[in-house]
Amino acid sequence: MFTKLVTFIRPDRVFPFLVAFRWASLIPALLLLILNVRNQPEQILHPLLVFGIVLLANLFISVDSRQLNQLVIDHPALLGIDLTFSAGILAITGGSHSPYYLYALSPLLAGAFFFQMRGALTISLIFTPFYLIGGYLNSQTTFPQIDLIALITQLVGIWLIPILFAYPAVLLKDINQAREELTTARDELARKHDNQTTAHRQLEIIHDLTVLLQAAPDLLSVQERVLGAVTNDLGFSKAVVALVDPAREELGGWLVYPADASFPVIPPLPLKSENGQAIKALLNRTIFTNDQEMLIQNPELNNWLNQNIWFGLPLYLREHPVGVLLVEKSGLTQERENTLMTVANQAALALGTTILCIDRARRLAVETERNRIARDIHDTVAQSLFGIVYSLDACITMLPEKADDVKKELTELRSLANIAHDEVRRSIFDLWPSALTIELFMADLRNYVGSCCRPQAFSIIFSNNGDFNSLSAGLRRTVYRMAQESLANAARHSGAQSARLCLTVTDDEVYLVVSDEGKGFDPSIVLSRSQNREHFGLHGIQERARSMGGDCEIISQPAAGVCIMINLPIMAPHPRHA
């Protein structure tokens, strides 16, 4: 209701009311003119002429009322013309006895409405002398006797009527101002609501994208879900993404969504500015659109991309370049661009994290493989070579007197070299028999230790409890390597003639104990030296145990033998053989 009221009394609707008042104020003059025609036809010319002039003035004002309305608002001095005209009509038609008194009030009402109280007072003040002068001149001609009561009454009307009319005008101004404030507030609330709706939509998209990315099994799935969010959720018709390989510093892995059979498959390109606008923008971290420059330094892919106008975003995770996201530009507004930037940042985080994890896993795998090969070579080949060198030294001292014995020794050394060759191949290619039974375990250890300590004899006393064969192939291999290294150290350094190996397998753990009654050593000194040398030794045994989640304790002291105790967890139950 309030809105309807405000709409009804808008300023552009009041001016027609003032025009209507001008026409209605001519009714007294028209009635008097009709009476004069009947009673005094000989004096009708002058009233008729005045009435015609007033009619022409009203017609002029009525024809283009809207333009005159704006002119009066912009140029208040124009009211002076109307005021002078009305005062003149009043003066020549009888002053205080004029039938045009109400007509003469028209410019006063206009001034009161357009310029409120100040306008009402100003225009009444200006009109009063005009009215008095007109009344005085009229008293000298038409009406020698001044009607004091009529004069005072009309003067009061000249002041009172505009003032009374100005008050509603002030109220109207306040109402219009309140309406503008309400409109502004409503627009502001609408804008905030739109912003909140946009922000809520962005959060929904980011949340859905985050959930999808967490479930993505590989990098290709992450790419597909990012492109799906850009096209399906944001409404872009087509999107393309390419990723950076941080190890090789190349941009490749181009993928388009929706899938397009004509999309070319190209090899990765080095991250150099001359390889296209997309790579240049990625290196400079700038947003771009395809223009005259070549997007990518590959004619086939560049021709495919040039079929559309693309909006390109470089994807970064902190200082690491992740890739490039291209979206088909049609229908891109500022609001959609802001949402796209938010989604692109989330996509860069997901893609970048995945790429860095893959790169870190790749580096870790390389480092782990290097350490594995180094340990295997130390545990096998190095020991075999030590035995070969030791035997060759003995052969040199035996020549030429014991040539037959040297020949026999060299034949055995050739077999030992072949075994070392097989061990190298096994270490490099990680070849290991899956059927390493407890019998093979003990037999291989006897042969290995025998080759390490030739020509002296060295025996092993085995003790086995539990089901060794139920362990996984990898765990059996680890136990074998640890036993191998422990026995090799005993055979080479202890000075004893034998060592004891006790192997116990439970449901949860594997226990390996290797001991001898040799000359012993100080573990703190030996382990420190082992850490400083470029081979593994006893320190390697501890590393193996800890990498498997177990532990290795070395107990020894000079002249008191050595005891190496190892425990390894069994991660999951293994099926037992019948």
Write up this protein.
The model is unreliable at 1-9, 530-535 and 572-578 (pLDDT under 50). This protein is an alpha+beta fold and 578 residues long. The radius of gyration is 54 Å and the shape is rod-shaped. The longest helix is centred in the first third of the chain and has 67 residues, at 148-214. It has helices at residues 2-8, 11-24, 27-39, 45-63, 65-74, 78-92, 101-104, 106-141, 148-214, 219-233, 277-284, 299-305, 334-398, 403-429, 438-452, 473-493, 523-532, 537-547; strands spanning 239-245, 250-257, 269-270, 288-289, 310-317, 320-328, 459-465, 498-505, 509-516, 551-556, 562-569. A hairpin with a 3-residue loop joins strand 8 and strand 9 (509-516).
